Amino acid sequence: MLTERFQRALGKAFGDEYADADPVIRPSQFADFQANAALALAKKLGEKPRDVAERIVEHLDLDGVAEAPEISGPGFVNVRLTSAWIAAELTGLDDRLGVPTQDRQVIPVDYSAPNVAKEMHVGHLRTTVVGDALVRTLEHLGHDVVRQNHVGDWGTPFGMLIEHLLAVGEDSPEAQLLVTDPNTFYGAAREEFDGDPAFADRARTRVVALQAGDPDTLRLWDELVDLSKQYFNRIYATLGVTLTDADLAGESTYNAELAQICDELEAAGLATMSDGALCVFLDGYTGREGKPVPLIIRKSDGGYGYATTDLATIRHRVRDLRSDRILYVIGAPQALHLNMVWDTARKVGWLPDDVEVVHVQIGNVLGADRKILRTRAGNPLKLMDLLEEAIARAREVVDEARPDLDPGVRAAIAPQVGIGAVKYADLAVAHDSEYVFDLDRMVSLTGNTGPYLQYAAARIRSIFRTAAISPDGATTPITLTEPAERALALALLEFGDVVVHVGDRLEPHRLCGYLFDLAQHFSAFYEQCPVLKADSEVRASRLALCAVTLAVLDQGLDLLGIARPEQM
After folding, report:
1. pLDDT for the residue 374
2. Distance (Å, rounded) from C-alpha 422 to C-alpha 428?
3. 2-81 architecture in CATH?
4. Which architecture characterizes domain 254-362 according to CATH?
5. Which pLDDT tens digit goes with each residue over 27-58?
6. CATH number of the domain at 383-560, please?
7. Is the pTM of this model over 0.70?
8. Vertex 270 angle, CA 267 and 274, to 5°
9. Residues 459-494, buried b or exposed e (16+ Cβ, 10 A)?
10. Closest Cα partner for 413 from 441, 455, 379?
């Protein structure tokens, strides 16, 4: 709202070309908000910043919204909103809580991407959790989000896996390991492949049959994939993410298109043969000694790699899905590969300039030694083991904090707290940053943690249970007389801008930081402003303020994919 008023002032003062400029409005210790548009504009206009600020203020219409703005420092414009306006805005919020509905875009989001017949490990945690928070947020902003779980479900290992499935029996307990312990099944298949030449020959023959579309081989491949789906869904259900079987868009989806991909790249003069492989060489991509780095489209043995599938993927997302923006929530080390794929797709015409592609880079999860989190044996930590440990640790915290609750209630709360703790800790840091996995800190009820936010929401629910009314029934117009009320109300009005920022900049950690600050504002309000013991009119107003706070906390946590226990 303030941004729009400043933009109108900029347009009136300096011309229409500045009407969409970002005034950079931020909270300030000197006022409610501070705009520093004057500093950037002064350089463009060749004027003094304070003179620019005075012209902005001259055209700034804040009648009924704020006190007269003040200019401070080199040219900052300080704004202090009136309490009456804040209260009216808060009272008038609808179910969207100030979050706008943006112009609709089609946005495929590529995230999670485990491999069939392999255990999901801790490395899959962040791409799954960050991706899910982004799709939830973008959908809430009004976009048509297409979840794309690009699972590894094709390639040479499947000959080995299919032959091992036949060896153990499709209905055997060993086959069920694909649902409960995929790594054991995969390891047994690999051991048989490495130790038995006859088995290895059968596996290689099976790969040829798979690629040729042999019906019986495809049936066995389907069985492998279906068993792995059960495993994936068990992980996704535990994590509480929104991925379903309908979102699977694995490598096999594009198998029939790969030869055509190669043909089109050759016809366009982009792909050439090099040491028996079909490669694309792009300007600006060089390795050691300045040698060009190839993007291998077809391997020397005639097989296809990740680059071919990724090119088919992006062509599908542009041509068939009609994407406006495509997000890849993938590990940071894949940046070079993605950029080469995108540049190739742009050169051949599959990726128009008006379609934005974004690598949402994912940093590593570290152990206490600040190395990538692994088991003591040095293997990647299984994701389900990590989640089960988090739930167990959360149960200890809940048992200690609320021994008065029925054991069944505590058992139901523990997964919500444990999984919420893991997800919040992951989301609360910038997605391209590393962080240390520390369960003791994550499950704490104090500090910047998921359980702290869950507890803040549960405490507000407790207030309404004591008051014997529903939060939906707290609709009295809000009045603000105390500083803590005003501070909380101001924080609540920022929610819409924060959600927009998360959707535009793809930064879920901004929402985490906002919710933590909001919970702290509520704690200060609750300590300084009696709610249930206040006089009737003040009590009703403060209950209404509590209701808005609860609604924002609930909505914010839901956008992050974090459960909200009824009590803690």
Report:
1. 76
2. 10
3. 2-Layer Sandwich (3.30)
4. 3-Layer(aba) Sandwich (3.40)
5. 887 788 899 888 888 888 889 999 999 999 99
6. 1.10.730.10
7. yes
8. 105
9. bbbebbeebeeebeebebebbbeeebbbbbbbbbbb
10. 455
